[in-house]
Design brief:
The protein has nine helices and 15 strands. The protein has two domains: about 170 residues, 3-Layer(aba) Sandwich (Rossmann fold), CATH 3.40.50.2020; about 140 residues, Rossmann fold (3-Layer(aba) Sandwich). It is about 30% helix and about 25% strand. It starts with a strand and ends in a 13-residue tail after the last helix. The strands form three sheets. Strands 11-10-9-12-13-14-15 form a seven-stranded mixed beta sheet, sandwiched between helices. Helix 1 packs across helix 9. By secondary structure, it is an alpha/beta fold. It is globular and about 60 Å long.
Length: about 325
């Protein structure tokens, strides 16, 4: 079988390394030069031919998402100009994924714009993980892109199963929108389910109005696609404690952790927070447990390269 040609953007070299390790002899890292001019513009050069190759570009939107986005588009456009046979972006978290609807007049639907921009630089397919709003996949299909939204469940379920064996856990969604994800975990674990009835005020801050489900004297897993500022999760934690919950664990694929989120979460009643390495976070407190997406994404890349089905790995939460 021909090689998978892997291009590593600068945002998450450790994830690229894990993916290459998972690919084994199938994977070949493409040597590149990626640097910044004195004026901060980005320069890219592939140091060997990728003509006719199956190219997978690995990038996440990390500390400077605007810069990471431009770098990704330049890498893809350069691969297209270099006559790569097929170009796939592996973007565990996608720029603008939370801007999936018009929040008020004269505001953008950024995820739709992203799909069109990505298509314009010659990309054939996009792979992501736990997309914030699964219905956003329609924007990529409309732009003429193949699109795969991969579940992160398999990197968290082993630990969750071990905990659930000895303790009685309830799966909690932080809002009604995440119920399908919570139902999936509850079905696999054989656990009960609860969710928070959340509202956002004019200041966009969330408030838990009601907690639906019984958590009294029960341990809980809160499951969500990401933690950013931490306000939503902490409001749910407060509601859970007020309703008699015991130990609280959190499962979140993408740990954005903006501003003072790390400090607030570390000082909270949450016992452990499980997340992926989709975003680089160094020197996290012991409360945080990071699981690598490398093997999962390597399996996806291998299957796509060899035209095998990936249905069982896609985000299917019902």
């Amino acid at each position: 079988m021909s090689n998978v040609f892997v291009v590593s953007g600068r945002s998450n070299k450790s994830l690229s390394k894990d993916i290459l390790q998972g690919l084994g002899s199938l994977g070949k890292e493409v040597p590149t030069i990626i640097t910044d001019f004195p004026n901060k513009e980005i320069f890219v050069k592939y140091k060997e031919s990728i003509r006719g190759k199956d190219v997978f570009i690995i990038q996440t939107f990390n500390g400077d998402p605007n810069k990471d986005l431009v770098e990704t588009l330049i890498l893809a456009d350069t691969a297209f100009a270099a006559s790569a046979d097929r170009i796939t972006l592996v973007l565990p978290i996608i720029y603008g994924s939370r801007q999936d609807r018009k929040s008020s007049p004269r505001t953008p639907i950024t995820i739709s714009m992203m799909a069109k921009v990505i298509k314009s630089v010659g990309v054939d397919r996009v792979i992501t993980v736990s997309l914030h709003a699964p219905q956003s996949s329609a924007a990529f299909y409309a732009a003429g892109l193949r699109f795969d939204n991969i579940s992160s469940a398999q990197i968290f379920l082993p630990d969750m199963k071990n905990l659930h064996k000895t303790e009685d856990f309830v799966i909690v969604s932080p809002d009604a929108g995440g119920l399908s994800k919570a139902r999936y975990y509850a079905k696999v674990l054989g656990a009960d389910i609860a969710f928070a009835d959340k509202r956002r005020g004019a200041d966009r801050k969330s408030e838990v109005m009601h907690l639906v489900g019984d958590v009294k004297n029960r341990n809980v897993f809160i499951v969500d696609d990401m933690i950013d500022g931490g306000g939503t999760i902490l409001n749910v934690v407060e509601a859970l404690k007020n309703n008699g919950a015991k130990d609280i664990y959190c499962i979140a694929t993408h740990l954005v952790l903006s501003n003072s989120a790390i400090k607030k979460l570390d000082e909270s009643p949450i016992k452990k927070i499980y997340g992926s390495n989709s975003i680089v976070k160094k020197n996290l407190p012991d409360k945080f447990i990071i699981k690598s997406l490398g093997k999962t994404l390597a399996d996806i890349i291998s299957r796509i390269h060899s035209s095998e089905s990936i249905d069982f790995m896609q985000e299917d939460e019902e």
